[in-house]
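Next up, a specimen:

>
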Amino acid sequence: MRHLPNVAGNRFIHHGKEDPVTARWHARAAWTTIVLFAIAALKIPSAVAQDATPVAQPVSPARPAHIHSGNCVELGDVVVPLTDLTAPVSEVVGQADRATPAESSFTNVPMTLDAILGADHAINVHLSASRIDTYIACGEIGGVVDPSGTLVIGLREESDSGYTGIAFLSPGADGASTDVTVFIAPVIGAAG
């Protein structure tokens, strides 16, 4: 048997007669093919996105930070080491191509805020452990304590590093310590 398409009616004919079984079979096959292509087309973008290789983000070295006696011009001895500042390492999200990257640390210091404020102290951030003598940001501890007992200070750029920051000092939950959170980020418009 030979099937020829009838161009005008888009139906199949069998020796001059329409073959309804063949026509239904071809229609089902055509719709099944269209549906399968539609499903595949919907899945391809997500499959491509899932298979995309993440772009490696540059990782900054851990940056040591300390509470020193004295001030930023004349730093004294280390009174308390703080947790090294680090940049988060994870998948980038949101407007990562426009956002200013930041580094942070959190340390529970075994001194009350009153004890820290009772003498001259400064928070100093170093470039890296291997370049500990290079200071990149520093701020004297002092200012206005808010009603919750928190003090926020600025960290100014040191050594033309291109970094500034802030630190939050708030009473620890135990009443005998201070929670110190330090943030640094590149100066807006600075090369880096």
Observations:
- The chain is about 20% helix and 40% strand.
- The longest helix spans residues 20-51.
